Amino acid sequence: MSIQNLRAAALKSALPVKLRTERLLQLRSVLQEKAEKIGAALEKDLGKCAFESWVSEIGFLRDEIGHFLADIPALVVPQKVATPMTLQPGKSAIHKEPFGVVLVMAPWNYPVQLALSPLIGAIAAGNRVVVKPSELAPNCAVIIEEIITQVFSSDEVLVVQGGVAETQALLKEKFDYIFFTGSTQVGKVVMRAAAEYLTPVTLELGGKSPCLIDKSAPLGQTAKRIAWGKWLNAGQTCVAPDYILVPSAQHDEFVREMQAAITQFYGSDPKLSPDYGRIVNERHFDRLVNLLKDTKPAIGGQHSKTEKFIAPTVITNVSWDHPLMQEEIFGPLLPVIAYDSIDEAIQLIKARPKPLAFYLFSTDSAVQERVLEQVPFGGGCVNDTIVHLANSRLPFGGVGESGMGAYHGALSFDTFSHKKSVFHQTTLVDVPLRYPPYKGKEGLLKFLVG
Ligand code: NAD
Q1: Considering the entire predicted model, what is its pTM?
Q2: Are 211 and 245 in contact (CB under 8 A)?
């Protein structure tokens, strides 16, 4: 089956509503059935422990499906909207129409979740889908294909495997929608390719997500919540804290609390911890070790190429022009920068591209209000990290260089649907007022249309 055949099937009909629900139910049970195999693939590709695999990949997907199973019947019904007096007694409604054939491109860091979660939304909305898993998580790519071919027929969903060359060939095809998750750099490649056919896109990209600690924050709890979000998946999370801004007066105490959190979570030698992951490949390992050049980590810094291990690492006294502060870190290195006033910190963040995530730690409601109003970001938390993703009622997506568009839960249904406006005119009356000649009607027309 080729993409052309998928397109022909899409032109014939959207996926019937009953079939969408059936397929999602099947997908949920196959995910359960293959949970161990998926866990093993995640372990091989990323050293992910079973708990993380369940919470951030398999369990996450099962929850996502659960939302749709409950919501699809209501979501497919055209949404009635009010009609202005001048158009009455006609009626207005928004119909949700699938785009047709959707391309989903996934990265390697949450390889199963980020390939299948957009797929779930696209199927719920009635689309046919081409899924392109990341070649950098090869064991997961195999299992993703296995799952998809078990659940979907080849005129519903196709899997295309491959690296850069294959993906670039794929991007030459015409799609009705492209949903891309990956780096800002490749996001630009995708958007250029989409422009050829004026294909709409969602770009779920990355960037440097800051944590801003206000002087009112309880440092022990703050350090724990940051450490958890940072070293989950060894820092290879798009919304991981990328750098910390801490008041100068609390800097040293914060670093001590970070050390305590790391030891509590991963023991005195994190290499031996069953809960600490590995770097995806040697290229990324070398990139990260290179970022450590000319630094003296306050915590961690140990690494081993054969094991693709880099310890949870905190680096202090980092200047803004150090390479650590020039690119998204996407690994277990955490720069900590001291600041003197909250306004200075806000300006430092605002001087950089709008981040995908932002985390404010403060118990002062005036500070919370000021910072949230002034700092632009995709999504985030007050007094926590990452968990905003766990609420599927919150749209997940970036802004500016961290992306465009959003999804999760029922919101994905909107992402993958065209909102078709329909006005139903009555045939019972035909008001002559709008027809020419207009002479003599101007006063009344002006009164009606303002
Ligand atoms: P990537 O951009 O390198 O790859 C993503 C996809 O694009 C892969 O399927 C890959 O095969 C393909 N690709 C890579 N280079 C390409 C090229 N030159 N032309 C065409 N296709 C190409 O991203 P990655 O390394 O897999 O993932 C890491 C990045 O993704 C980080 O920046 C991270 O922040 C971001 N990310 C974002 C989210 C989010 O939801 N916003 C989630 C996870 C990761």
Answers
A1: 0.95
A2: yes
